[in-house]
Each structure stands twice: as C-alpha cells, then as structure tokens.
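Cast an eye over my tokenised protein here and flag anything odd:

===
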Amino acid sequence: MKGERREIRFMLAIIPMIVMIAAMIMTIVKFEGSPHVPLILGTATAAIIAWKAGFTWKEIESGIYEGIRLALPAIVIIIIVGTIIGAWIGGGIVATMVYYGLKIISPSLFLVSITVICAVVALAIGSSWSTMGTIGVAGMGIGVSMGIPAPIVAGAIISGSYFGDKMSPLSDTTNLASGIAGADLFDHIKHMFYTTIPALVVALVVYGVMGMSYKGSSINNENIDTIMNELQNSFVISPWLLLVPLIVIILVAKKVPALPALAVGVLLGCLSHIFVQGGSIGDAVNALHDGFTILSENELMMELFNRGGIDSMMYTISLTIVAMMFGGVLEKTGMLRAIVQQILRLAKTAKSLIVTTIVSAFFTNVAAAEQYISVMLPGRMYKEAYEEKNLHPKNLSRAVEDGGTVTSVFVPWNTCGVFILATLNVHPFEYGPYAILNYIGPVIAITMALFGFKIAYKNEADSLPSQVTTIGK
C-alpha cells in the first residue's frame, strides 16, 4: 500500500487479539477443534490492519518469517524430545521407571504415593496428559475403592502429573517456555526449583495429613498387579536401565548443553532397545520417528506405551509455528509494543513485571482456552520488557510456566480442563481445591516476586542485594 506509514494505536492493535480469542473460544469450546485456525485468523486480521496502516506485504511477510525463526531452537528441542521418548519406551527405560514407581504404593499413604508416582512417570515421559490417561485412570479406581472421594484423588494425580511435566526436559511446554524466552533449557528447569519444589512439598504434606483419615483402609491391588505383570511380560525390567536417565542427569550436572545431553539419552535408549529388549535395529530406528508400538489386551498399557517419535510432535511443532506467525506480525508492525505499553503501565519494577507476567499467563488460559498459547503469547509479549530491565530470560520462562502451564487445569473450557474431565470423570470445579500444586505454585511465585527473592539478572551482581536480604531473614 502506498502512503506514509502511521503508528498503530492500542485500540486497533488489540483487534487481532480480540478476533483470535473469540475464534479460539468458538473453535475449541463449541466445535472442539484445534487452536491453529483461530491463530491464522488472528494473523490475517493483524496483516490487514497493518496493510491499512501503511505496511507493505513484504514487511508483514518478513514479520511472519522472523517469528518462525525465533521458534526454531524450541522446535529442534521438541524434535529430539520426540526421539528420546520413542527410544526410552522401546528400550524399556520408561517401563522400568513405571514398574518400580508402582511398587511404592501404600494404603496409608495412597495420596502421597499416587502424587509421587505420577510425578515420576510424567518426569520420565514429559507428558501430564499421558500420565493422567494411564496411571491416573488406574489411580482413580484404586483410590475410590479405598473410600477416598474422587475429587481428592484427582487433585493428587493432577498435582503429581503437572509437577513431572513442568520439571521434565522432555516436556513440550517446558521446552517452549525456555525456547521462546531465550533461556537455556536446564537453566530454566533449575530456576523453577524455587517455586515448584516448595509447591510439591506443601502438596505432599497436605495429602499426607488428608490421607491419614483413610489409614487402615484395604486396597485392591488387582489393577496395579495387572499392569506390573504386563510390564514384566512386555519388557525386560532391570534396575540397570535406570542408569540411562541417571547418565543424562549427570551430563546436565556437568553443564553439557541440552541437545548433546538428550542425544546421548537417545543413543542409550536405542542400544537398550536392541541389546536389552531384543529388538532389531529397524525397530529401534522406526521408534525414533513413528514412536514405539506395543500390542496388549490391557488398554492402559497401550495408552501409556504406544507413543513417542518425531511424528507425535508434529502437532506441537505446527502450533508453535502458527502461534509465532501471529506474534511475528504483531511485533513487526508495532502492535505488540502498543499492547505491552498499556499493560506495562502497571509494571514499573522488575517485581511487578514478573507478577504481571504470571497473571497475564493465567488470563490467557481463560481467554484463549489453550495451555500452549498461555506460554507462547506472554513469552513473546514481555520478552523485550525483561531485556530492558536487565532481567535474565529464565525469569520470564519460569513466570509463564508458573502462570500458564499449571493453571490451565482450572478452566473448564480450556483443553486441559476438558481432557481431565473426560479422562478422570471429575469436573474442574470439583477437583480444583485439591489440585494443590497447581495453585500453590503461582502463589509462591507471586510472593517471591513481590519480596524480590530469586530474581536473576543478566549481571549477577545486580541480584546481590535481594540475596543478602533473604539470607538475613
């Protein structure tokens, strides 16, 4: 379009957001569709407004490509995560972790046990949904048979599953948060220790106290025994296989970058598949792309272990690309800046900026009805503001996880809330009070931000005052 380019003001800049959110609610809630099309519709709306404001199509197209380019590091990690899940399942590593995890179930500490088991499984496979859809389903049956109300059991399962998902280097949301914010994956995970570990401790203490009310109840071991027998029949279970995740952890501790460390995990998983489980080289290679496949009469076994591979990550990758197209146009044309400037009027300091990010991520969950969007959009919107305040990008990645990833379960029309209702047969309003980690985590994060505790700066010397104050307390 010819003519002089003019600045896009807030009232125009917010139109693509309104269109996207309205389309998102209609598509996901009413039609049960995916969030891809609403994001494309929002991108098209933003492009039209930008064109009318004087931007050329070449400039708009450049914004789209720049947005996608920024997501490439996260996409690479997501791809290798798909391969490591396929390799670890095929190598019997996940089966071994599940087997030994199930053995710790105790009638008197059921709520604590199921939380820990779900945390371990989700940490191993990087997926809260798969954990809830397998171990969670079995846990619901066992817990209810012990006389524990279904909402309480569901809350414990959700807390454990989201802890493992959030802290796992195999999790798509964990990789997306670190990639979009520009933080190293393992720096991001380490920084989440300060908010997520205390939240888990609080949850376990509460579940321990609640669980004492059911002490002495009999437990039906049939479901667990069936799964454990199936695991032994389908895989070679050996504690030696636990060395594989241990080696990856050691590599991370030795400051090995994420890609090489995870690549070693993939290699060890493939070797375990061939030499421990007795699979062929072709089976091991195919598991890296197509995922592992197991035939079993046990439906839970098939749901848990028929997954992984690069192909399973295509949905997340395509959603990442589409979301970054939307963000790229908003940023290139100045719309993002116009929106952020209005919001940043409430965030004058580093403390208030982090709190604003956490709250924004939660409301994105409510408005956009999609967990991924609650991580992606705030991550892109506030990145420049964090840089201007000399804040380390791991502050941003942690804030979007604390406000976005875990709070998605409380929104009935969010994809996570819908999934849990369908899987565990408990409504979000019923299990909400008992999903303790999912709301204590954001509360701890906001409290820490307000007191200036564990706010990391690019120049570490800038954070010394808050650290000294904290030690003094």
Remarks:
- Residues 74-313 form one domain.
- The two ends are 61 Å apart (CA to CA).
